[in-house]
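Ligand-bound model needed. flavin-adenine dinucleotide.
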Amino acid sequence: MVDLTRRFDVLVIGGGNAALCAAISARRAGASVLVLEGAPKFYRGGNTRHTRNMRCAHDAATEILTGPYTEEEFWNDLLLVTGGQTDEELARFMIHESKDILNWIVEQGVRWQPSLGGTLSLGRTNSFFLGGGRAMLNALYRTAEELGVDILYDAEVIDLNIEDGMFLSAQLKQPVGGKTEVRASTLVAAAGGFEANIEWLKQYWGEAADNFLIRGTPFNRGAILKMLLAKGVQEIGDPTQCHAVAIDARAPKFDGGIITRHDSVVFGIVVNRHAERFYDEGEDIWPKRYAIWGRLVAAQPDQIAYIIFDSTVVTSFMPTLFPPIAGATIAELAGKLELDPAALEKTITEFNAAVQPGTFDHTILDDCRTEGISPPKTHWARRIETPPYLAYPVRPGITFTYLGARVNKQARMLMQDGKPSANMFAAGEIMAGNVLGKGYAAGMGMTIGSVFGRVAGREAAKNARN
Ligand SMILES: Cc1cc2nc3c(=O)[nH]c(=O)nc-3n(C[C@H](O)[C@H](O)[C@H](O)COP(=O)(O)OP(=O)(O)OC[C@H]3O[C@@H](n4cnc5c(N)ncnc54)[C@H](O)[C@@H]3O)c2cc1C
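Prediction:
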């Protein structure tokens, strides 16, 4: 039974990777720590439950990483995907700290495994969690409990008492027990983004947001972020920017997870509901491009698109939860997709005619390309001509939003007047926009949470002592 009448040194709001890294780090620094996780125990861990890997810099190959990934290369990748929309000082700090996270996270009980084949070709840059994100979380929870961190589930924070940039208390609401005022010397906000709040998304995306599917937890509704911004914390990031991929249109509204994501785009073409192509499916290698397809589909009529391929490539990518829709002819496939058969036949005929001879290799930017059509397919273009013809319907799958709370290198929140908050820290999705102005490189969500979670916990503990 957690004694809620006492005043804790550090209150952590959230129950995912960022929260647990913060809680463990604060506790190891000698602080008393309370974690409030809004979800029930079975659903604990927010989006972290769905993860598989983390991107960390390292100077040499390890037991599970196939080669070095220097700080400079990580920085260059980040620069490329964000188009320079990042806080260089914070980003370089995060990249530097990520080197140490590879070992630190193992010290907290997490285990690595070699990269999974056939996924995003991440064997050199990203470390995979043995047993996936849920096993990773279980290890962090076990360590936190062993260290004496107090954890409450079904513990939604519904209000924050903040005066002049200083956190005083939080109001907690529980199904049994009702509302309680929780006091602590410092706050670590690690309560995720606002991706599960469709009404909030609609403010920027309009009615289109009704057609978005949320890949992760329904509990990341952004309530904590909203309260912080309303109470004077400086905001960072563009509210329309987020990580969004193409996921199966048949996926559930929330929590469809990784098995609903489609990685087959490079092996075929993508058309909208007018059966027209709208983007170069072979622009760059998939790990650098998979995260643009959510936004691309969001911009199409009715926010739906169809990945079309033929029977020759079905074993080339990871199978997903849903089987492809098949047709013996293109017209039959079009009928099943409720597309205009003549329009789909025209698009595929024109595409096939534009394909140039080349040597196919999906692991490099190969020379299989189209000529004379717009948009082009600049790599991996092969004719779609061997029945059965196959398709996956896809919709935008929102992973997490980037609008967040501005922080400094101590993970301390900055107030609207530019001054650091007296005792409030943030980690994870809730501050991801500091590093990710736009774009994404696979595995960075967990880097942001682990690095800034660890720092936030340590700094919050120090703050509480002073
Ligand atoms: C399907 C999927 C696959 C992914 N794969 C990867 C991957 O392989 N690698 C990677 O780096 N990233 C991946 N990501 C992104 C990654 O999940 C996130 O970046 C990361 O987990 C964020 O951690 P976090 O702790 O900030 O948020 P979360 O893990 O989402 O935790 C937020 C927590 O806050 C709690 N909460 C929210 N509001 C309240 C409130 N009012 N009161 C109390 N608690 C509250 C939630 O219940 C939740 O526990 C993936 C995401 C999804 C959806």
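DSSP finds eleven helices and 19 strands in the chain.
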